[in-house]
Specification:
Layout: H1 3-23, H2 25-51, H3 56-75, H4 77-89, H5 91-97, H6 104-131, H7 139-166, H8 170-186, H9 199-207, H10 209-221, H11 234-237, H12 239-264
Helix pairs in contact: 1-2, 1-6, 2-3, 2-6, 3-6, 3-7, 3-8, 3-10, 4-6, 4-7, 4-8, 6-7, 7-10, 7-12, 10-12
Length: 268
């Protein structure tokens, strides 16, 4: 099927999921209130604690890129949970019976979650500005930082799409994703400098793509604290490139896997 038809069908599916955000209160709360809570909690709980011996304002600026990265990656789980629910209810079977591009369902689903992440980042950024966070390296660099986070989260959403096609229910997706994503986002430079981690965890954090996504956006926002030592590991020295490499690899692997599983899935 030609690309224009795929994009047209995908846009219809994406619009369906965007409307669902407005109509389902739980999703609306996650999209708006949850990001605000994360920013305020981390800024004043962690920032206040570190501010006793250091610069709380400086830490809040250091922190924001990490919160952005964690939140958009957790936001990708909406893809898996939504698809698992559609499979469970037989919606996927109905989609497959329609004269539409097979790849449009997953493409539309993941694109709608890009829009969700954009909303989340806007809300978090406004809240960050209220608590004292500032972009210090120009508009275009900041735009590149946001774009990098969104593109990386989009790749992660395809992993979640594949999982959503495999597991029996949305609850399993949420639980399994939390077990994997939670340590992945904390064994990284999201919330603390690399040199504060124990030796073995430092090595993991250096090669963790969440670290590189955070480091790259932090650099592009101009939020690297003064006096921070230069990273010695290649992934953090070339954080944007390393993140893009991971993005391409994930898409090359999981876009075909998710579409293959879509064709195999049946209602549960």
């Amino acid at each position: 099927m030609r690309a224009p038809y795929v994009l047209s069908d995908a846009s219809v599916v994406a619009w369906r999921n965007i409307i669902k955000i407005k109509r389902v209160p739980d999703l609306l709360v996650f999209t708006t209130l949850s990001p605000i809570m994360f920013v305020l909690l981390f800024a004043y709980v962690f920032g206040g604690a570190i501010g006793q011996n250091g610069n709380a304002q400086e830490y809040r600026e250091f922190l924001m890129a990490g919160i952005f990265a964690q939140t958009v990656i957790f936001g990708a789980t909406i893809t898996g949970a939504g698809l698992a629910e559609d499979v469970k209810k037989g919606v996927i079977d109905r989609f497959r019976s329609l004269p539409m591009a097979p790849s449009a369902v997953l493409t539309g689903r993941t694109l709608s979650d890009v829009i969700n992440n954009v909303i989340v980042l806007v809300v978090m950024s406004l809240t960050g500005l209220i608590v004292g966070w500032r972009i210090r390296d120009g508009f275009w660099n900041a735009a590149a930082g946001y774009l990098l986070l969104i593109v990386f989260a989009y790749a992660v959403s395809w992993i979640m799409a594949w999982i959503g096609m495999l597991v029996p229910s949305p609850e399993v997706v949420n639980n399994a994703s939390f077990i994997v994503i939670f340590p992945l986002t904390f064994i990284a430079v999201t919330f603390v400098p690399l040199d504060t981690l124990p030796g073995p965890l430092q090595s993991i954090a250096e090669w963790n793509p969440v670290s590189s996504a955070t480091q790259a956006s932090r650099e592009l926002f101009g939020n690297i604290p003064a006096g921070t030592p230069e990273p010695t590991a290649w992934p953090l020295q070339h954080a944007a490139l390393y993140t893009l490499i991971w993005t391409v690899v994930i898409l090359l692997i999981f876009v075909p896997l998710a579409n293959l599983q879509y064709r195999r899935s049946t209602s549960r």
